[in-house]
Amino acid sequence: MTTAVYFDLDFTLLQYTDDFETIFGRAIPDAPDGAYERYVEELIDAFGRLSATPHRDGIDAVLSEFDVGIATDVAVQRYYQSELDATTVPAQTRSALERVATHHPTGILTNGAPKMQRAKVEGHELDSVVDAVVVSNDPDVAARKPAGEIFAAAEDALPADEYVYVGDDYDEDIVGARRAGWDALHVGDDGPEDARRVASVDDAVARIV
């Protein structure tokens, strides 16, 4: 029996050294009051309607309503770089990912913008470890966790007899995976007490390998 193992990206494999308002501030320095809030509002809407470019949509909304004196392409590129620079993969997490990948087909299944998520995967050289990367707002996927369609897309990307998912968000990751018929390990403290809750990605992998 083949078991494929998928991992969430943000706050599971990746951790952040800065909050998102700080990241935004590096992309659009000295943004006026209300600009970040407008960005977040449009960003959430864009994610919800499965736009492939939610960060650009959010920045476009800001630039159309506020005088910030910066071109859209420049601001978007700055944002991508700023978010990438604010992410890190702990050494123990990378080691655990590499360990599971030697035993099982391994992938990343993440909500997010395809360009941004793949930049983080490639920037941290996770693409050399995993066999597949499935991103919600990729037009070929067009479904966000916890919807069953994104887990089906992951199954298509890595055919296997069984699936395990490791994620930090109970409602999106754990509930979504289990509804799809997958096992799921919860690296987080939200949601109810759960026998499959673990303290770290390393602990999750210890239960899989």
Summarize this entry quickly.
This protein has 209 residues and is α/β, with parallel strands linked by helices. The chain is built from nine helices and seven strands.
Key features?
209 residues; two-stranded antiparallel sheet; alpha/beta; 7 strands
Draw up the topology in text.
Layout: E1 3-7, E2 15-16, H1 20-27, H2 35-48, H3 54-65, H4 72-85, E3 87-88, H5 91-101, E4 106-110, H6 114-123, E5 132-135, H7 148-157, E6 162-167, H8 170-179, E7 183-186, H9 201-208
Parallel strand pairs: 1-4, 1-6, 4-5, 6-7
Antiparallel strand pairs: 2-3
What does this protein look like?
The protein is an alpha/beta fold and 209 residues long. Helix content is 46%, strand content 13%. The strands form 2 sheets. A 5-stranded parallel beta sheet has the order 5-4-1-6-7, sandwiched between helices. The protein is elongated and about 60 Å long. The chain starts with a strand and ends with a helix.
Helix content, binned percent: 40-55%
Helix segment count? 9
Major sheet: 5 strands, parallel
Task: Classify the beta-strand content into a percent band.
Answer: 5-15%
How much is the average pLDDT? 96
Judging from the principal axes of the Cα atoms, what is the shape?
A: elongated
Quaternary state reads single chain
